[in-house]
Write a structure and sequence with these properties.
This protein is of the alpha/beta class. The protein contains 14 helices and 22 strands. It has a 7-stranded mixed beta sheet, with helices on both faces. A 6-stranded mixed beta sheet has the order 9-8-7-10-11-21, sandwiched between helices. Strands 5-6-22 form a 3-stranded antiparallel beta sheet, with no helix packed on it. Strand 1 and strand 2 form a beta hairpin. The N and C termini lie far apart (62 Å). The model has no long low-confidence stretch (mean pLDDT 95).
């Protein structure tokens, strides 16, 4: 069981490497800071290439035995892990809010959502079947086995410090792979807490390691290792491109969930109250620090005034404060750099002619807090239309032509998530098929589910996480030709 006060845990200044809770070889540590008040909540080991290599070596040995377990045996361990996460949901949520800043209610939701990936893939492990196929030559058969790819590595971001971890480790472990994880330096404790519960659930030593510390050194060791056969990464497109280059040296498989710039479209026949409510959930969840958050909001000119009034009322009513107090609707951004980026985007838009209907500046609370902001009069030359703001800013522009709008929102090198609202069933099919994005929300601003394939197209990534095909990246097809099958029945 987890101690509800994470700063008293034995985990502090220890990472989980090769089945052991250990310090960095150097003894160095990194501080973890509460973004709501700047307080240091603890320290984690500043590990590097040597510790990562040991974790990989242990994973090689552990993976063989883990792969030899039956799917039912792996299923049992994973189901126990899922149950422990749900049982400790409150403690995990408080831990997440301390190190990431999101509202405690949203942290609780993420814990349960993250656990659902472990439950889902525990079941999928038992359905990873191969095939027996006829051969062109009658005395032969084609047998296709599905076997674990081997040792995998994962690199996860800070904005969803449990869900992005479980989306990667659950399919890997279910398939019979081992995994070495490097969590974001801002939010390492959630990953370490998951490792502790996994240990309690019966994950064998070395099957799952969590290495904290020097991102360049840890990532470099992962990419250079001949033993790591797949790397799963969630983060920026530039870093994803770097990993693609590095993977060429050892011909690794990659699963990449990279940057997005999601359009949110409100057609003239939309249910405006539904659209406004869903935009609030899509844009202002986790203070806008969501890779699939709405970034460019397009409203048909015939309903723009009415929709903006609804949106202004909703945004203006939001309250801001520390995430561990349920009285608030918005918490802090992750750090000062995030605040500066949001403010730079807002000031750039205002300078180029945008109108600030509400918000528009750093919050009176100071620190990492920023006012929820609504902008209108947005034009293509503004930063908010060119980059992910990753903050609580809703930039709204109008449109008149469906065809021209679809061409506009598809004219981008990213394609993670998109959203649109319409009551016209013909338009629903037409637009859903036309949008060049990996995920499309129709009359919904919330997309994620363990049962669904999560991922993007173009420069938003490679592969899919979750869903019925979520195991595919972690399994290799082995073709076995069975010959000598001719002869009469006796």
């Amino acid at each position: 069981m987890l101690n509800p006060e994470p700063y008293n845990q034995l985990l502090m200044q220890r990472a989980f490497v090769a089945g052991e809770w250990c310090a960095a070889d150097s003894g160095d540590t990194d501080a973890v800071v509460n973004p709501a008040n700047g307080d240091v909540i603890g320290h984690v080991p500043r590990m590097g290439a040597d510790e990562t290599t040991r974790a990989i070596q242990a994973a090689v040995l552990a993976q063989r035995a883990w792969a030899a377990c039956t799917p039912a045996e792996r299923h049992t361990v994973l189901k126990r892990w899922h149950a422990l996460i749900v049982e400790n949901a409150d403690a995990l949520a408080r831990l997440m809010t301390l190190e990431q800043g999101k509202l405690l209610s949203q942290s609780r939701t993420e814990v349960v959502y993250g656990a659902s990936y472990i439950e889902w893939f525990a079941e999928e492990a038992r359905r990873a079947a191969g095939d027996i196929l006829p051969h062109a030559q009658g005395d032969k058969r084609i047998l296709v086995m599905r076997q674990p790819i081997g040792v995998t590595a994962a690199i996860t971001p800070w904005n969803f410090p449990i869900a992005t971890v479980t989306r990667k480790c659950a399919p890997a472990l279910a398939a019979g792979c081992a995994q070495v994880l490097k969590p974001a330096p801002e939010t390492p404790f959630c990953a370490l807490a998951l490792a502790k519960l996994g240990e309690e659930a019966g994950l064998p030593a070395g099957v799952f390691s969590v290495v904290t510390g020097d991102a360049e050194a840890i990532g470099g060791a992962m990419m250079a290792s001949e033993d790591v056969r797949l790397v799963s990464f969630t983060g920026s497109t530039p870093v994803g491109k770097l990993l693609i280059e590095q993977s060429a040296q050892t011909v690794k498989k990659l699963e990449l969930e990279l940057g997005g710039h999601a359009p949110f479209i409100v057609f003239d026949d939309a249910d405006l109250d539904l659209a406004a409510d869903q935009l609030m959930a899509c844009k202002f969840r986790n203070m806008g620090q969501v890779c699939i958050a709405a970034n460019k909001i397009f409203v048909h000119e015939d309903v723009a005034t009415s929709f903006l009034d609804k949106l202004k009322d909703r945004i203006g009513a939001l309250t801001t404060g520390p995430g561990d107090e349920d009285a608030f609707d918005q918490g802090p951004l992750i750090n000062g750099a995030a605040v500066n980026k949001v403010d730079r985007h807002v000031r750039d838009a205002a300078k180029k002619g945008a109108q600030v209907l509400t918000g528009g500046k750093a919050h009176a609370l100071g620190g990492n807090f920023y006012e929820p902001t609504l902008l209108t009069g947005i034009t293509p030359d503004m930063l908010v239309t060119q980059e992910e703001t990753f903050g609580p800013v809703a930039p709204v522009m109008t449109f008149s032509s469906e065809k021209a709008l679809i061409e506009q929102v598809n004219d981008t090198q990213v394609g993670l998530a998109s959203y649109f609202f319409s009551q016209d069933i013909a338009r629903v099919w037409r637009v859903a098929e036309a949008l060049d994005y990996g995920m499309v929300g129709v009359n919904s601003g919330v997309l994620s589910a363990a049962e669904a394939p999560f991922g993007g197209v173009k420069q938003s990534g490679l592969g899919r996480e979750g869903g019925a095909r979520g195991l595919d990246a972690f399994l290799e097809d082995k073709y076995v030709c069975l010959g000598g099958l001719s002869g009469d029945v006796t």
